[in-house]
Specification:
Layout (H helix, E strand, L loop, with lengths): L6 H6 L5 E4 L2 E4 L2 H17 L3 H18 L1 E5 L1 H8 L8 E5 L4 H15 L5 E5 H6 L4 H15 L3 E11 L2 H6 L1 H18 L3 E5 L11 H22 L7 E5 L10 H18 L8 E4 L22 H15 L4 E3 L12 H4 L4 E4 L1 H9 L5 H14 L10 H8 L8 H5 L3 H21 L6 H7 L1 E2 L6 H9 L15
Parallel strand pairs: 3-6, 4-5, 4-11, 5-6, 6-7, 7-8, 8-9, 9-10, 10-11
Antiparallel strand pairs: 1-2, 3-12
Helix pairs in contact: 2-3, 2-7, 3-7, 3-20, 4-19, 5-7, 5-18, 7-9, 9-10, 10-11, 11-12
Length: about 475
């Protein structure tokens, strides 16, 4: 794919395709614009010139908004779910670690075909680091995929596991929280109007009672909620998620949910201004991120506590007006588990590693590139191999970290490979959308969504490119689904 040499070359290539006026960007030739998206998004990601990169992102976002694909908060939909006015489906939140453009295109193709609208694109704090995808880049690529496939409607992009690192928090609380606020600010400026706060990492189960155990969690979530409310766009309250139990830890309880919510809401009330609180609650039900890897590289079967999902979702809705509970670490579950989530009232389910596995283990990924990646991991990630761990376990656990160093090589794979993977993704989303009952949710999502109608600012995109030089530090224990 060609990298443009100047901003003027970018706009010369779009002559008679788009027009820039006082009202913003207008598409003059939708078909030619669709053809141009491929090189626009490539330059938005890989061009070394930050002005070219930013202008390509601005064009993508402006063209999509003018065509009817607008970044939005899912807050309105989740409030309707909390009131019982909307029900019967579980919203999939999809983390895309690599091949983001093609995976997103596969999702949009399935969404258009199945009339789905209740779905979220997300990326975790840790994933931004090891996949080399900043908030501004991730948003631009997802939006480019929507523009390419002709998707119109609300686009929900979410910051997943904006997580407090317990070690850093213990050493310097103010610095850790300041860094998290800085990330939130970058994400919101990029169009992430859905943010999942994860301070469950500082819950201390050694404390004598649940209030003391959850205290740092509800206090931090309150502080970050106030910060988000201060910077969110007008008329579009950001959907904020909370979390009471670390994924991979002990299963959550009703007492923990009630203690967290009662104290969180009373803390917000003391802050004043009738501040909106969280819209959903992440809980632990027996899963782990990426699944439990067996010595041969296969994934162990996991028993999900669906009774806890059903019970806590009812409490969350009836007592606190939340959409329900959120299930993390679900993408490697067997297919017959997914249709249980909507039956048991789960509001949202997070999916990540399964799509990564489809890319690496599918029939299309070139074996020579795969072996090059695995060689890189053995040489550069050897310190992460635990005693007694097999090579298969090590590769499975660390290959997600190849998406950053090999991002351009993976993006540059032959077109037939990309087409094949994209088709497989589309078929997978067909299955997941059906099982999670989000088919035919387009009108519902559009009715209740809170789209942000503010014009895209080139200055914001340029600032976003400048911020990419500061890589988001990947921290031990970082989560990704």
């Amino acid at each position: 794919m060609e990298l443009k040499k100047s901003v003027s070359e970018v706009f010369d290539s779009l002559k008679d395709v788009v027009r820039i006026g006082k009202e913003g960007l207008e598409a003059l030739d939708a078909k030619r614009l669709g053809d141009a998206v491929d090189w626009l998004v490539y330059n938005a990601v890989f061009n070394a010139d930050k002005e070219i990169k930013a202008n390509c992102r601005w064009i993508i976002k402006s063209a999509a908004a003018s065509s009817g694909a607008r970044l939005a908060s899912i807050q309105g939909l989740y409030e309707a779910m909390g009131r019982g006015e909307v029900s019967g489906f579980t919203v999939p939140a999809v983390n895309i670690r690599g091949l983001t453009y093609d995976v997103a295109r596969g999702l949009f193709r399935s969404a258009i075909k199945n009339k789905a609208g209740a779905f979220i694109f997300e990326i975790a704090k840790s994933e931004m680091g090891y996949t080399d995808q900043s908030p501004h880049e991730y948003a631009a690529v997802v939006i480019a995929a929507a523009l390419k496939e002709g998707y119109k409607g609300p686009l929900f992009i979410q910051g997943d596991h904006f997580q407090v690192n317990p070690k850093n928090y213990a050493q310097d609380k103010d610095k850790e929280i300041s860094g998290l606020k800085d990330l939130i600010n970058k994400a919101v400026s990029a169009g992430f109007y859905n943010i999942d706060i994860d301070s469950s990492t500082v819950v201390d189960l050694h404390k004598q009672n649940v209030v003391e155990q959850q205290m740092p969690n509800f206090e931090l979530t309150s502080e970050l909620t106030e910060y988000i409310r201060d910077i969110e766009p007008e008329m579009a309250p950001i959907s904020i998620g909370g979390e009471i139990g670390e994924v991979g830890g002990k299963n959550s309880t009703e007492e923990e949910l009630r203690v967290f919510m009662d104290n969180y809401l009373s803390t917000l009330a003391r802050m004043g201004n009738n501040m909106k609180g969280i819209s959903k609650m992440s809980i632990q039900t027996g899963t782990s991120h990426g699944g439990v890897v067996l010595p041969d590289g296969a994934i162990a079967k996991v028993k999900v506590d669906f009774d806890t999902i059903e019970k806590l979702s009812k409490v969350a809705r009836k007592s606190y007006g939340l959409a329900g509970v959120v299930q993390h670490g679900a993408s490697t579950l067997p297919d017959d588990a997914f249709d249980i989530f909507p039956r048991r009232g789960a509001a949202e389910v997070h999916l990540a590693t399964g799509f990564q596995n489809m890319i690496f283990d599918g029939k299309y990924f070139p074996d020579n590139l795969k072996q090059e990646i695995y060689k890189y991991l053995r040489e550069n990630m050897a310190k992460e191999k635990k005693e007694g761990e097999t090579d298969e376990q090590f590769i499975y656990k660390t290959r997600k970290k190849a998406f950053g160093p090999f991002k351009q090589k993976i993006w540059d794979m032959p077109q037939a490979v990309l087409d094949g993977i994209r088709k497989e993704m589309e078929e997978r989303f067909d299955l997941l959308f059906g099982k999670l009952k989000v088919n035919n949710t387009y009108d519902t999502a559009a009715k209740w969504a809170n789209p942000v109608n503010a014009p895209v600012k080139l200055e914001t995109e340029i600032a976003g490119v400048g911020a990419e030089g500061k890589k988001i530090k990947e921290e031990k224990g970082g989560r990704g689904e």
